[in-house]
């Protein structure tokens, strides 16, 4: 994962993360998330790392598309906050889960100098902002 240690590492990390989410690639996500990763879903429910990955391992969540863009990144020492828009066409347990979400991610630099996603929070937005 040395590609996350140079210039633009956080932008590169976001692209790799979004690709792993699209592919439901739990092996890749295992390495991208901190061991104590936590997320708050779009309806306010919390998920730890095991629960996040289990949605894919069980086949309950499948994405037809998954985009991460309009990202603004602010670094704070060994941490960073990324604010962006996640748009997806997805099915969860047979139900349509298409949506557009404002996402806040907290990333942390680990001792080897690479980045990991420690937390994220999704909030649904009615429509994609323009301009």
From TrEMBL:
InterPro entries: DUF4440, NTF2-like_dom_sf. Residues 17-117 form the DUF4440 domain. Pfam families: DUF4440 (PF14534). Signal peptide: none annotated. It comes from Streptomyces iconiensis. It comes from the Bacteria. This is Nuclear transport factor 2 family protein.
């Amino acid at each position: 994962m040395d590609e996350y240690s140079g210039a633009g590492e956080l932008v590169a990390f976001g692209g790799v993360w979004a690709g792993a989410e699209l592919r439901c690639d739990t092996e890749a996500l295992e390495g991208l998330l901190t061991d104590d990763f936590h997320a708050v879903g779009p309806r306010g429910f919390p998920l730890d790392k095991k629960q996040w990955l289990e949605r894919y391992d069980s086949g309950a969540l499948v994405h037809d598309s998954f985009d991460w863009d309009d990202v603004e990144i602010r670094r704070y020492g060994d941490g960073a906050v990324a604010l962006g828009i996640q748009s997806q066409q997805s099915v969860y347990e047979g139900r349509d889960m298409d949506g557009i979400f404002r996402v806040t991610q907290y990333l942390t630099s680990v001792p080897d100098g690479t980045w990991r996603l420690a937390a994220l929070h999704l909030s649904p937005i009615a429509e994609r902002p323009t301009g």
